[in-house]
Protein: Sugar porter family MFS transporter
Organism: Cryobacterium cheniae
Amino acid sequence: MPDAVSTDFSHSTVRRRLFELFNNQTEALTMTQTEKPSNNGKVVALAVAGAFGGFLFGFDASVINGAVNAIQDEYALTATLTGFAVASALLGAAAGAYLGGRVGDRYGRIPVMLLGSIMFFVSSVGSAFAFSVYDLVLWRVVGGLGIGLASVVAPAYIAEISPRAMRGRLGSLQQLAITIGIFSALLSDALFANSAGGAGEPSLFGIDAWRWMFLACAFPAAVYFVIAKILPESPRFLVLKDRETEARAVFTRLWPNGDVEREIRNIRASIKEDALGQRVGSLRGKTLGLRPIVWVGILLSVFQQFVGINVIFFYSTTLWKAVGFAESSSLTISVLTGLTNIAVTFIAIALIDRVGRRPILMTGSIGMTLSLATMAIAFSQAVTVDGEIALPGAWGGIALVAANVFVVFFGASWGPVVWVLLGEMFPNTIRVKALGVAAAAQWIANFLIAVTFPSMAAVSLPLTYGVYALFAALSFVFVLTKIPETNGMSLDEASTLLPPRNAAKIAARTASKQGEVRSGREAALRR
């Protein structure tokens, strides 16, 4: 695991930054206290609009849940090929996340949103009318590209328009939008399947219900395109491109009572300091070829997926059918799980700027470990009755409760908080690129979990969930040892996330010495 001690900033730079932060506390407090609620309405509205990409991200990724069995029957797929068909969108998502960072840095956040909306629309129509599993995979990859673009640009955009006091809550809107998208996909799956009498049965105009599940994504994709056309560009991107007049206009409109000039000065200073250490915008470093802060983002993303959360949202209908539930009941359970996911995201939104990032993540890790271990034990009790697998006695209920407890702890912690951290932890000049790399790693990890689940489940469900429980336990250790707290920092202050060891003590001693020098000068003047 990469060392969390960054080499990106010199000791002198960090001492100066921390000393400046110390002396600016009164100014920052005054600025925060003078901000009025009237400032916040426009910011919240833009953050909600920017997060709409997260809705499509959740919808497009999860819509296949209700269609898995129908697709498997339609094209006579093996477990391995089924897993690949489900996970193929995630390969596109990894590529989209990686490319999104570069496109976003070169052309801006808004063009990336527009491109993503087009890909969502094309994927929706193409998947709905696929004539074989091969072109279905192709259209799912196109949709995955849109998912990847949305996963990069939405958290970056929200972080870059948000005041520091609201950034955690507004950043959580990305995860809330994802959970609403997941719920909407699961709900539409259930409605189409139940109204037709099954996902593989004809529905409206004689088109199979599973095809309507994919087609349903076309409408929100069109809405996202319209939203992206009316959003202003990120002011931080404008400063990076020397378009400060435009950036100032955006900040003034968003924060009419805020200190716009101070914010622009902070952005300029952050960009200048990044340029002192290395070539502007480079992700390269001495730790296995990357900067340590980038590795932290990558590992955060990997742990978020290796706990197996998307098995619930990709395969829950198949999972519950495999242990004895009927298709209609399995779909209903999936919808309720999606609704639970939405509800608990509000908990994270309420607590993230009060409690902080680290405590929420560590609490979530503990809860996920215990609930996943409980699911492993429950599935180990499965028996075969008349050729059908079932969970005897109370074990079916225990498995259901444990699965939803797992969703509760994930949705209130690792779901939203990881996106907030990824949106705020990187320096300005690499923010979107680093987000792209971290999001790409997340999608690759997601792909590995999704593509291996059918085969692993066929071997042993208890072993599968035992592995997920192990990664949940390891995520606690990772946060405890590698993740510092960023709550209450400005976006530019948070980019000094991993300073050299003892930098705070050095800065305090420097401040003390400078204070003594000033006192000596004043005494000399009085003489």
